[in-house]
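Sorry, explain these tokens?

***
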Amino acid sequence: MNKKHIGGSFFDDVKKWEKEDPGFRVRVNEHIEKRMLAAMLKEIREKEHISQTELAKKAGVPQSVIARIEGGTSKALPRFNLFNRLLSAAGYKMLIQATKGGKRVQVAFSD
């Protein structure tokens, strides 16, 4: 039996959307970054047994800010200073690291 595929694949659709809208890939990447930061914040908060409300009080921000970050409903990526403040309130330090071969450069944000 010879079956033919009717219609394109999801990946064909993505390629089409990228051609039609140059900002499409940028928005997809930003969405992925927001989800990664959301997952990190939630994981840290849960490991430390801190509620959103408690973390918000410690960081000096409304609880809704944390809910938007964790829920992925924030319109923009959280700024470094906000994310660092949230991590610091949970007892963590934010570290950005770049590596190339055996070389490493890192920046640690202060509280």
In short: The mean pLDDT is 87. The two ends are 66 Å apart (CA to CA). Residues 10-108 form a domain with the 434 Repressor (Amino-terminal Domain) fold (CATH 1.10.260.40). Helices lie at 10-20, 24-47, 52-59, 63-71, 80-89.
